[in-house]
Every structure is written in structure tokens, then in C-alpha cells.
Amino acid sequence: MNTLESISISKRNIVIGGFFLVTGFWLLSTFTWSWWGLFLGGVISWLLVFKQDALSAFSLPKKIWAIPLGVISYFVLGIVIGLLSKQLGFSWSANPASGKLGSLIFKIPFMLMGEELLGIGILETAKNKGLSLFYSTLLSALIFGLMHVFVYWDGSVFSTLVHVLLLQGVARLIFNYIYLITGKSVWGSWITHVLVDIIALSV
After folding, report:
1. CA distance 150 to 177
2. What's the domain of life for this entry (predicted)?
3. Mean pLDDT, to the nearest integer, of 120-146?
4. What is the spatial distance between Cα 119 and Cα 139, in angstroms, rounded to a whole number?
């Protein structure tokens, strides 16, 4: 049973864990050789913040029908947002990893587990500290989106912010929903995330 919402979490450990997550994401986004950065940072952060309860979020996913639903929802929303962005005159940067699936296929599972540990970690920590589920998942999506600013920088602050909040931020909302509906299972959101990226990087 996932007990992360009710355990005692030290504010000091949250700050230290946040440092490891930010450092890991920076490494992942900056250096091609540090694809393992966020995964390692996420594992260390989870062990620091959630301690012996860290594994409670890794139960087998329930309602697995939600996983393909999440994948479809992501691409439908992505297409709609992409069309609207073109109508509004935005020229958004593509994913730097586009077309490189072959060289990343064995790294993607670790990279995306790092992203899930980041997104779900923020969600569960915020809930643990008294935020409602609604605001906790919004906070998770906001931070997740903003952390992609440098990855998708297109030369315009406004355009880049709209990009990462509408695409990466909304993606985080979908992955958070899958996490919750599959029984608070990180495996559920991780599988969804892996499928989304494999499909997106292969076209």
C-alpha cells in the first residue's frame, strides 16, 4: 500500500532531495554522457525523502487499461496544441532527441524513470505537506514544465514558457493521473511515459 501521503517527511530532507533532483535534471539536459543523471538523482532523492516507505509507490499497476488511454490522450492533446500553436504563430523547438530513438532505446527507461521520480516525488511531497490533490498535481506539472525551458528554448521567453507549460506541463498532468488511477503506482505512469516517448521519437 502506498503510504507516502501520511508518513513524516523532514523539510531538511526535502531540500536536499530537491537539490539532487535539480542537479540530476541539469546533468540530463546539459550533457549527452549524463543520461543517467536524473535517474540517479531521483533514486537518491526518494531514499532521502521517503526512506523505508520509498518502495510503497512501486506496486504493480491496477486498471492497466488506463495506460493506453493515457498514451492516446497525450497524442490527441499534443496534436490539438500543436495546431493551435501554429495558428498563433509560434515556432516551437522540436525535442532534441527526435530521430535518435535507436541510440537512446536502452537509455530511455532510466531517463524516464528519473522524470517520474521527479514528477511523482513533487506530487506526493506536496500532498504530504498539506496541499490538496488538485494543487499538488498542478505544482508538479508547473515545476516539471518549467524544468524543460532550457531543453526547448526557442529564443523567446513567452513562446518557450507557453510551449513547456502546454506540452510538458500537460503531459505531467496525464502521467500523474495514470499514477493515481493505476493505484498510485509509479510503474503505471512510467510505462505510459516510456510508450509516449518511444512513439514520439520514432516518427
Report:
1. 26
2. Bacteria
3. 95
4. 9
